[in-house]
Amino acid sequence: MQALNSIFAMNIIVPWILAMFLGIFVGGIPGLTATMAVALIVPLTYHMVPIAGLAMIIGVSFTSIFAGDIPATFLRIPGTPASGAAVLDGYELTKRGQGYLAITLDLVCSALGGVIGILILIFVSPVLAGFALQFTHYEYFWLGVLGLSMSAVISRTSKLKGVISIALGVLISTIGIDITTGYPRFAFGKPVLMGGIGFIPAMIGLFGVSEVFRSILSSTDLSLSVITTKGRVKFGEVMGHVGRNLRLIVQSSVVGSVIGALPGAGADVAAWVAYGTAKKSSKTPEEFGTGSIEGVIAPTSANNAALGGSWVPALVFGIPGDTITAIVLGAMLMYGLKPGPLIFENERFLVDQIFSVGLVSQVFLLVIGFLGIKAYSWIFRFPRNVVYAGILIFSMVGSFAMRSSLFDVWLVLGFGVLGYVMEKVEIPLVPLILGIILGPMIEANLRIGLIKTDGRFMPFLGRPISFTLFLILAGLFLWEPLTALVRMVRRKR
C-alpha cells in the first residue's frame, strides 16, 4: 500500500500522464512505434527519480500499443507492428458501421489484458522467467514456425494462396547481409538493400497505402467522411461482449504474457498467435476475418499482456524481453539500478512501485484512450480525400523517421502497389507480413542450430519444449483432416 501511495506524488504522476498522452499520439500515427516513443522519453528522465522515469516508460508503452489499433480499426492501417492483427476484424466492423463498438471493446480489453499481464508478472515472474531461459535456438525456431503457421490458420482464401504469400514474405526477409557468411544477398550491388527490407514500411504500404489506392481507383465518393456513423456506443453493450468472452480475454492474455516473456518474441508475435489460438478454439471460426468480436478481443488482450510479460526476464534476469525493455534496462543502469534476481531484495520497494504503476496505468489507459478515440474519430470525420492525403504524408514521414532513409519511402509506395495487386487476385496480405517479421528469426535460429549440430536436424526434436512445439504445429495442420476422418468413420458405423 505504501508503494501504491508513493506513485501519486506530483513529480511522478504529472510526467507519467503526459507521457501516456504522447503514447496516444505516437501510436496512432503509422510508422511511429512504441519503441520510438520510449526512446524519446528516456533522455527526458535523466534527472528524475527512477520511478518517475519508469512510470513514463510504462505509461507510454501501454498507450502507444493501444493507440495503434485506432487507425487499424478505422482505416485498416496499423499504427504499430503490434496492431497488425487488429485490421482483420476491427476494420470489417467499421465497414458495417460498428467501428466505435470495435475500438471501445478494444480499449477495455487492452486494459484488462494489461491488468492480467501485470498480475502474472507479480505472481509468477520467477516461474515464467525460468521457463523462458530454457529456450534455445531449437525452441525459438519452432516458435517462429508456429507463429508463421498461424497465417495458414487465419487465412480466408485457399491454403495455396496463403503459402504463396508466406513464401514471398520469407523471400523478402532474406534480402540483406547473410547472418552467417556476412555476404550480401539479393542486394544487386545496391548499398540500401544491404540493411534488408524493414517490416514497418512493408506493413504501412501493404495495409495503408494499398487501401488508399483501392479507394481512389474505386467508385468511392472521396468527398464523404471516412467515418459515417455516430461516435456513440452503449457501455452495457461493450461490457456484455466482455462478459460473454471473459474466457477468451484470459486465454489471450495468458498467451500474450507467456510469449512476451520469451526474449525477442514481442507483442506483435503475441497478437498473431493469440488470434490464431482464438480462431482454433472458437465455436464460430468461420466468422474470423469478417468482423468477429472474438477477432477483436484476442489480439488486443494479448499485445498489452505481452508488455507485462516482457518485464519478466528484464527484471528477474536482466535479459530484455523486447526492444522496449532493452531500452528500459539501459535506463535502469542510467539510474544506478542493476536488474537481476537481487533487485527483488535490494530494491523491493522500487519493484513494488513498478508493479503499482503497471496496474494504475490500465486505469489511466481507459480514460486517456477514450479521449484519444474521440480525438482521432474527429479527425477521421474529414472528407476522405483530406484524410487519405494526411495518411500518405504521415506514412511517408513515419517510414522515413525509422532509418532516415528515402529508400523506405519508396518501399512504402512499392508495397502499396503490391498490396493492391495482391488483393485484386485474392492473395492474403497477412501471411506476407508474418513472413517478413518472422523470417529472420526462423532463419537465424535454424542456421545456428544446424551449425551447433553439424547439420543434423534431429536435435531440433530432441528437447521436451521443442518437441512439444512441434506437436502443436503438427496438430494445427492435422486436426481438421483427423476430425473429418473420425466423422467419416462414425457415419459408416
Which terms would index this structure?
493 residues, mainly alpha, globular
Characterise the protein shown here.
It is a single chain. The protein has 493 residues and is mainly α. It has one domain (2-492). The protein has helices at residues 2-6, 10-27, 34-41, 50-67, 69-75, 86-95, 99-133, 137-154, 159-173, 199-217, 235-244, 246-260, 266-281, 293-317, 323-334, 343-346, 348-379, 384-403, 406-424, 430-452, 464-492, and strands spanning 176-177, 184-185. It has a two-stranded antiparallel ribbon with strand order 1-2. The mean pLDDT is 79.
Main sheet, how many strands, which sense, barrel? 2 strands, antiparallel
Class based on secondary structure composition and strand pairing: mainly alpha
The unreliable regions are none
Mean pLDDT: 79
Q: H/E element string?
A: HHHHHHHHHEEHHHHHHHHHHHH
Q: Please state the CA-atom Rg, rounded to the nearest Å.
A: 22 Å
The proportion of strand residues reads under 5%
Q: How far is it from the N-terminal to the C-terminal residue, by CA?
A: 64 Å
- Our count of domains comes out at 1
Strand order of the largest sheet: 1-2
Number of continuous helical runs: 21
Q: What best-fitting shape do the alpha-carbon axes yield? A: globular
Assembly context of the chains = single chain
Question: Percentage of helical residues?
Answer: over 70%
Number of β-strand runs: 2
